[in-house]
Amino acid sequence: SVVTQECYVQNTAREYAKLYAAEAEPLEGFGEVPEIIPIFLIHRPANNIPYATVEEELVGEFVKYSVKDGKEVNFLRRDSEAGQKCCTFQHWVYEKTNGNLLVTDLQGVGMKLTDVGIATLAKGYKGFKGNCSFSFIEQFRALHQCNEYCEMLGLKSLRTTHQKQRKATSTKSKNLPNSSAVKKMVPKKAREPRDFISSEH
User: Fold this and answer.
1) How far apart are the C-alpha atoms of 195 and 198, rounded to whole Å?
2) Which of 48, 82, 173, 200 has the greatest CB tally within 10 Å of its CB?
3) 69 catalytic residue (yes or no)
4) Coil, strand, or helix at residue 49?
5) Torsion sign, CA atoms 139, 145, 150, 154
6) Any idea where the domains of the chain sit in the sequence?
7) What Cα–Cα distance (Å) separates residue 33 from each residue in 17, 28, 29, 110?
8) Of these residues, 79, 105, 115, 195, which one is catalytic?
9) Distance (Å, rounded) from C-alpha 1 to C-alpha 103?
10) How many CB atoms neighbour CB 20 within 10 A?
11) What burial letters (b/e) apply to 133-159, b meaning 16+ CB within 10 Å?
12) What is the CA radius of gyration of the chain?
């Protein structure tokens, strides 16, 4: 059922978050680490809806820190400490699982997160299948901007492999008039969105 899947996904993400915390917390200057709150499945046989989930109530401003689709740019995730640490958590999981798994939809209050999703490649990862499209993994690879927390954990930039792919596709996707003045501008055009994202800190 959807409810069981929701529990399974959130509690799997929670296990990754614990491993991330164990690695990040001892680092000097890292500070508090995001935590995914546990979610419990309860069975109520007498009820019309026999299965429900129970979790701690989060009080405060609820923020979506990670993007579900590439068109949504959430400034709160880039400018806040919790948001940056969530993006680093995504990068850390991505690297730990060799790009097979990504925790998405990180949202919550402060450093306490809930209602997260997991994207896996089509075949799944170690017997686990996510509940989000694997296109999220591609989007993450394309859009992730490393921050100071990624550096503290020694995570490898995702830029280099992505740029090679872009060069191959960028010429096909641009239907520009064939004048030399326009041609000179093409490489800059292709770079603009990334530069824009990284300079807005």
Assistant:
1) 5
2) 82
3) no
4) coil
5) positive
6) 2-153
7) 9, 13, 11, 10
8) 105
9) 20
10) 23
11) bbebbbbbbebbbbbebbeebebeebb
12) 19
Is residue 11 within 8 Å of residue 38, measured between CB atoms?
Answer: yes
Residue 138 structure tokens: 């591609």
- Closest alpha carbon to 125 in 159, 150, 97: 97
Token pair recorded at residue 6 = 């929701």
Looking at the chain, list the stretches that DSSP marks H as alpha helix, in order from N- to C-terminal side.
2-24, 75-79, 81-96, 135-143, 148-152, 159-173, 180-199
Q: Tens of pLDDT along the chain (201 residues)?
A: 788 888 999 999 999 999 999 999 999 999 999 999 999 999 989 988 888 889 999 999 998 887 665 545 555 566 789 999 999 999 999 999 999 999 998 999 999 999 999 999 988 898 888 888 888 898 889 888 899 999 999 999 987 654 555 455 444 444 545 544 444 444 443 433 333 333 333
Question: Domain 2-153 is of which CATH architecture?
Answer: Alpha-Beta Barrel (3.20)
String of DSSP letters for 106-142: -EEETTEEES-EEEE-TT-BTTB--SB-THHHHHHHH
